[in-house]
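Late entry, written up from scratch paper. The run itself happened at the end of the previous shift, but nothing got recorded in the book at the time, so transcribing now.
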Amino acid sequence: MTTVSIDANITVKWPQGHSSYSPGSPEELAIIGIDLLVKALGAESAQSFIKQVFEKYPADLNGAVETERK
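Output as recorded:
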């Protein structure tokens, strides 16, 4: 399996203040994104949105696989 790393600084602003995030992996980025969706849309709407996104992928899709170069 391929290791993916992320180098990003994310600043989120809303009327009550702001937050900063520095995800280092796709999993950390997903957690941040889901947290922000829940805060913006509410839990039920966020779940519905995420379900719509997953509907475009086949259930048996595997993640990226590292291949050996010759």
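The mean pLDDT is 88.
(Scratch paper discarded after transcription.)
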